[in-house]
Sequence to fold (1680 residues):
Amino acid sequence: MNQFSPKTLLAGLAVATALTSVSAALPAQAAELRMAWSQDATGLDPHKQTAFSSLRLLELIYEPLVRLDADLNVVPAIASSWEFAEDARTLTFTIDSNAKFSDGAAVTSADVKASFERLLDEATSAAARSNFLSIESIDTPDDATVVFNLSIPDVPILVAMATINAAVMPAAEIEAGTVGTEAIGSGPFVLESWEPNAREVLSANENWGGGELAIDGITISVLPDEMAILASLRAGQTDFALLNDPLVATLVPMEAGLELNRVGVLNYNVLQLNPSRPPMDNLLVRQAMSCAIDRQEIIDAALAGEGKVTGPLTMPAFAQDPANLFCYEQDLDRAKELMAESGVDGFSATVIAATGEPPVAASEAQVLQAQLAEIGIDLEIEMMELNVYVDAWLAGDFDMAVAQNGGRPDPYPMYNRYFTKEGNLAHVSNFPDDELDSLMKQGQAETDPAKRVEIFQAFESRLAEQSPWLWLSTGYSYTAQRESVSGFTPSPTGTLFGLVNVSVE
Amino acid sequence: MTGLLSVRDLRVGFGQNPKANEVVKGVSFDLGPGETLGIVGESGSGKSVSALSINRLVDFGGGRITHGSIQLTRSDGTVLDVAKADEKTLLGIRGRDVGMIFQEPMTSLNPVHTVGAQIEEAFRLSKGLTGAQAHKATLDVLGRVRIPDAQSRLGYYPHQLSGGMRQRIMIAMALAASPRVLIADEPTTALDVTVQAQIMALLAELREETGMAMIFITHDIGLVAGIADRIMVMQNGVAVEQGETDGVLDNPQHDYTRHLLRAVPHFTSGKAVRDDGRRAEQQEPIVKVDNLVVRFPVGKAWFKPKGAIHAVDGVSFDLVPGETLAIVGESGCGKSTTARALLGLNSKTRGEIVTEAGRSVRPVQMVFQDPFASLNPRLNVEALLAEPAIANGQRRDDALRERMTFLLDRVGLPQDALTRYPHQFSGGQRQRLCIARALMLNPDVVVLDEAVSALDVSVQAKVLELLVDLQQEFGLAYLFISHDMAVVERIAHRIAVMFAGQIVELGEARAVLSDPQHSYTKRLIAAVPAIERRKQRFAVDMTQVPSLVRPPGFEPSPAQWREAGDDHRVRVEDTP
Amino acid sequence: MGKMMSSLFRHPSGRIGLVIIGLYLLAAILGTLGLTPHDPLKLFAIDRLKAPSQTYWFGTDLLGRDAFSRLMVGIRQSMLIAFASVAIATIAGTIIGLLSAWWGGIWDGIFMRVMDVLLAFPAILLALLIIAIVGPGTMTSVAAIAIVYTPIFARVVRGPALSLKQRDFVDAARTFGSSQGYVLTRHLLLNLVAPLVVQVTLALAWALLTEAGLSFLGLGTQPPTPSLGLMLAESRNLMTHAPWLMIFPAVTIMLGILGFNLTGDALRDILDPRTQRREA
Amino acid sequence: MSYVVQRLLTFPLILLGVSILVFVAIRLVPGDAITAMLGTEAGLLTPVQRETLAAYFGIDQPIWAQYLRWLTGLFQGDLGISSIYGKPVLTVILERFPLTLQLSLMSMVIALSVGVPLGVLAASRNERPSDLVVRVLAMLGQSTPNFVVGILIIYVLSVFFGFVPAMGTFTPLFTDPLASIAQLIFPAITLGFAFAASVTRISRSAMLDVLSDDYVRTARSKGASPMSVIWHHALPNALIPVVTLSGVEFGYLLGGAVIVEQIFALPGLGRLVLDAITQRDYALVQGTVLFIAFNFLVVNLLVDLAYVALDPRIRIGRR
Fold:
C-alpha cells in the first residue's frame, strides 16, 4: 500500500555506499520507551496485513530490501545496492553483509527469493501481489545477489519493494508456515509479547544490521480514547504517542512539557463521485461541483486547519501547484453557469462515510453538504460502520463517498488500480478513460524521470479537469512526545522507523 | 387504693396541624393495680389511639398528644406524666411498666428472626438477662402461655405457627418484662372463635397469676363482658359511658351503648332465630349439591404429587327458593371452597352441583368478603354495575340504566353514585354496591361468602336487614358462609356446621343452635362470647385444628347420619 | 388523566419534574418548527468555536453552528428516540407480560424464556449488533433501545398481573361470565397503569442515557441532525478547546433524566395503591 | 433445592436461544472478516486469494454447517479459535474476564457501602433536611451518564493531580494487589456512582416500607432502642429488595462496561466484544456473548438463592 518512487530514480542507482553501522555515542544507560496509540495492529504477517496500525508495528520488526527516507528517496535496507538494466527489464540487488535476522541467522538471497515467491503465490492472498505481476523469474547467482527478471519494463517496481508488504523473512519460517505467529524479522526490534488490543512489548534487536539502538525496548499500550492518551502523556505515564485525530493533536503544543511532531503525508482526503450514476455522468455537473466547493474552508472547519489543499498527486516530486488545476479556487458563479449549461437544475444524492475512520469524516461530510447546497445539490449523509462502508465502497455501491485513500511516492502504483482499464478497483471509480489509461501505461514504461514527471502531470491535469473525484486536501501524521524524548524523525509515509534514533533521558 | 394509671382529659391529633383534626377528644379514666378496663368502640372511635398514647407509640404513627395528662405510677412508686416525658424516659417504661399485644398476629412478629430470639430480646431489654439465663427464662414463659414442646418451637419462624400460637408468643413476649399494665389492642379479632376462647382464658389466668392491670380493647361488647371489671364505651373520640361491667351491661345510660347491646347481633343460643320461613315439603330445591369433593395437589406438578389437601370431602345439601342456608365453621374447614365450587371458581374433583334453570341466564351470583378487593378501583359505579349485563349480551341502554338506579335506590345508595368511584364509599356502602351488582341479572341464588365479616358491627346489622328484605322481595335463596355465630343466628333458616371439609351437623336453625348434638358444634357454641356469660371460667384446652393434607389415594369413611329431629341430622362420630 | 396531572403538580418533586419536562417539550416543539435563534444546520464559517455570547447563547461548535439551536433540535431528537423506543417497549412488553401472566402454563414458560434470552444478552451488544446490521440512525437507535427494554417491561407487568389475577373482582368477573378480552383490558390493564406509568418515566430516563452512550460510540443518531448524545460525543475531543460544547449538552441530558426521575417518583407516590387506600 | 434444579434446567434452553441469536445476528452484519482485515485492499484480491482467506476464517461453508460445527465444539467446551488472537476463544475470554469481574465487584462494594447507609439514614430521618439532601444526591447520581463522569475524572486527575490510573493493560489482583486496586479504583467509582444512587433509593424506599410494618411497632413496644429498631429489626427485612437490585445490576456489569473500558483504556470483556464485532471475529463474538449470558444467568440464580437465604418464609415451608 505504501510503495514509494525515488526523487531521481537513476541518480539513486549510482549511490551504492554500503551503510556501515551508524554508532552514535551510546548514552550511559539505555532506557525503555513507553509508547501509546489508539488503534492496535490486527495481525503479524507483513505480506497479509494492510491496516495502517499493523504496518506501523511490522515496520519495526521486519525489513524490506530497500526503504524510503524522510525525503522519499530509496535508501538501502537489507540490500546495500541495486542496479536496473538498460531496458529496465532486469533488477539486481546486493545484500548487505551485516543484515541478520533477529535469531542471528544472516539474510541470504534464498530468503529474498522465498519471500517474493510467497508474495506472488495466490494462496498467500498477499494484497501487494498486484504490484509485482511483472516479475517473471528470480535468480540467486550467490548468497549476496538477487536478480529479478521482469516481463515488461516496470520502473515503479523498485519503489513498490520499499514497503513492509514486501518484507523479507527467513525461508525456514516460510516452510514452517509460522510467519503469522513467530515474528522473526531483520528489523531493529524483536516482538517479545503481544496482547491484542492491550499491549506490545518490543526489545532492541542486537543482531540488527543497522547498528546499535539508543533505547533497549519499547512497550506500546493501546489506549482507544485519544484524550486518554493526552492525559497519560501529561501525567508522564507515556513518553511517546501516535495520534490520529487532528483536534487532539492541536492540543499537544498547549501542554507544558509536550512536543508535537507533524509531517505532511501522502494520503489524500477526497470526495469520490460515481460517474456511472446520473446526473454525475454529466461532465458539466461534476465540474460545477468542483468549482462550488471551497477546499480551504473544509480544511479550516473539518480539520481545524490541519491540512493543505491538494490535487490528485500528493508526492512533492510530481505534484503541480493546485492553483493552476481546474477550478481549485471556489467560483460559485462559474459553478452556477456550468450547472445551467448542464441542463440539470439541482439533484439529491446520498454521500457515505465511515464513522471515525478518518476521525474527521463526519465533519467533512457536513461541510460539503452545506457547500453543495449552494448550487441546489441536496446531500443526505449516511454514516456507516467501517467495514460496512468498505463493503459498499468496494462494490462501488454509492452516489458519493467521503474517503481518505493511501498515497504512494510514485503515481503509477497510486492510481493504476483506479484509472487503468484493467485496474483491480476500476469498478470503484467507474471512470474508464482511454487517455488516462494510456498516460498510466506510458508512465510505467518511461525510464527518463523528467519525462515521467511530464506524463503524470498531464495525467493529474486531466483528472482535475474531468473531476471523476474531487480531491480536497492532504493531512499530517502526528506523534507527540515528552521533553525527555529526542531524536525522532517523522516520515511522510507515516512509518515509525524514525524510532531507531530515539533516546530517552 | 392508689391508682396505677390516671388519664385526665386526653386529646390526640394527627397530621401537620394535630389541634385541627383530633381523633381523641378529651378522654379520662383511671386504672388501679390488677384491675381490667374494657374499652369498647367501633373503628374510628379512637380506642386504639388512646391505648397507643399510654406508651406514646402514637408518636411513631404520626399522632401528637395535644392536651391532657397520663399519670403513671412506676414500680418504684414514682409518678410520671407520660404525656410530657421525653423519648429517653419513655424507653424506660416501654416493656417494663407498660406491655402491649396487638391485633394482627400475622404481621406483629418479625418474620426474619426466630420466635425464641424475639422473646429473649424482651428479657434482655427489660431484665438484662443474657445467654443461658435468657434462654431458660424464655422456656419457662413459653410454658406459662401453654405452648406445647417449647424447646423445639424456639427455633421456629413466625410464619410456621398458627394465628393462635403467634398470639401466645406475643403474650409471652409482653410477660417477659412483667409489666404493671398490659394493653391488649383487639388481640383476638383476627382469630377463630375457639382459638379466641383459649386466648381469653389464658389472659384471665395470667392476670390472676401476675396481678397485672390490663386494658382490653375490642369492638365486640360480648367479649369484654367475660373479662373486664370496668367498661368504657367510646364513640368518635369521646368516652360516652364508663362504669362497672354489670352496671353498664344491665342498664346502659347512653343510647349508643344501648345500640351496641341491642341492635348489634349478639348470640343468644338460638332465641333470636328467624321465624319467617317454614320449609314447605313439596318445594323443589333450586340448587342440589351431592357428595362434593374438592382436592388440591401438594408437591411437584409433574412428579407424582406427594398428597393432596382434602379441602372439601363429600359435602351434600340443597337449597330451596327463598330460603337461607348458612354454612358455619372455622377457617380452613372448607366452607369458602364449597361456595367457590358452586360458582365454578374452584374446579371440583368429584360430585355434582345441579342448578335448576332459574329466572336468568346466570341463576347463581356471589358477594365477596372484602368490599375493597371485590370492586375494581379504576371503574365507576355505572361501569361496575353494567359489567354483568354486558357480559351477557345486553346493551348499555336506558332500560339498563333504569335498572341500575332502581337497584341503587333499593340497596339504599344515593342516586348520584353512578358517576363516583369505589374509594369514595365507606365499607358498608361498598358492600351494598356488591349486592346491587349481584342482583343485576335477577338471579335466583346469591352466595354470600363472609359478606359482612369485614364491616363494623352497627353497619353489619343494617346490611343483614337489607339482605332479609331483598330475600323476601325477590324470593332469593341465600347460601350464607360465615364464622360469626351471632350473624348466622340472625339470618339463617337452616344451618350446616362444617369441620375439616365435612358437614358434621345440618338442620333447622333453632334446633341446631339451642340443642347442638355433635361435639364440635357444642364446642363451637360454647366458645362464642355472650353478654349473659359474664366472668365465666373458660377451660383452657389445646386441641389443634387437624391438618387436611392426606396421602395420595386416601378416601374418608362414608358418612353415617343420625336424625335428631324432623329437620336436624348429625354425623355419627367415630371417636366418643 | 386530569386528576393525575393536578395531584402531580401538588407533589413537590412532581412539580419540578413537570416543569423540566415542560421546558423540554417546549424546546423540542420550537426546534421542530425551526423557531430557533439560528438555523441549526447553517455553518457560520467565520464564527467557529466562539464562546457563549450575545449572538450565540451557548457558543458555536467546530463547524461554526449555533450550539443553542442545535441543542433545541438535539432535545427533540433525543426525546423522539426516547419516547418512540419506550412506547414500543411498553406496548410490546405489556402485551407479553399480560398474556404470559393470564395464560400461565407453557405460554408463560415460552414467553418468559424468550424474554430471558433477550435479558441475558448483553444490552449494549444487542444494540451494537442491531445497529451494525441495519446501519446507525434514528430509527435503528429506537429499535435497539426498544428491543433491549421490552423484556424489562414484560417482567414489570407480569408480576402485578399475576397478583391481580387472584383479586376478588377478577373472580367476580368470572362469575358474570365476562369475556377474556373484557377482563384483560378493563380489570388487569387498567389496574396496571400505576406500575406502568412509573416504569415508563424510569425507562425514558434510561433511554436518554443509552442514546447518549450509543452516540458516544458513534452508533446513535447520525450527523448532521444533532442529538444530545451526539453533541456530547462531538465535544469529547474539544473538551479543553471549548468546554462549553460539552457542558451544555451534558447538563441538558442530566436535567432531562432528572425531570423524568422526579416525575416518576412523584407518580409512584400518587399512584401507589397503599397511599390511595389511606386517603379513602 | 428442587427450585435450583428447576432453574438450572432452563439454562441450556436460554443459552441455546442466545447462541442462535448471536450466531445469526453477527452474520447479518455486512462486511466479513476479510474486509475487516484488509480494508479497501480487499478489492485487489483475486478469486483464488479470496477463497483461501474465506477457508482460513471458516466462513466458506453454508451457515447451518458452520452453526452445527460450532455447536458440537461447544459441547466439548471448545468455543473455536479467535482469528484476531490465533488462540482458543475460551483462553482469550478468561484472560480478559478477571478485569471485568474485579471492576464489577469493586463497583458493587462501593455502591453498597455508600448506598445502604445513605438509604437507611434518609429513611430514619424521613422528611427532614438530610433526607431531602440524600434524595437529591441519589437523583443526580442516576441522571449522570457514566462516561461524562469518567471523562471528568480523567481530566481532573491528569490536569490538577498530574496522575492518571494505569492504562493499556491490567495488573491482576494476585500479582500486585495494591497496583491492581489503584488501577481500577477510579473506573469503579465511575460505574459505582450511578449504581450507588439506585441502591440508595431502593434502600430508602424499602426501609420506609419496613418501618411502617407492625413488627417494628411491636419492637418499639418492647422498649427496643431506636438503633436496634433500625439495624436489628428493620434492616434485615429491607435488605431483600436491595439484594435483588444489586444482583441484577452486578449481572449487567459482568457483561463489561464498554464505554468506561474505552475511556480508561481497560482491556475488559466489553472492549473485547466490541473489537471482535469490529474485526468480525465471529468465533470470539459468539464465545464472549455466550460467556456473558451464562454469567448473567448464574448471578440471577445467586440473587434468588440470596433471596431465599434472607427470607425464612421462602426458605422454610409452612410446617
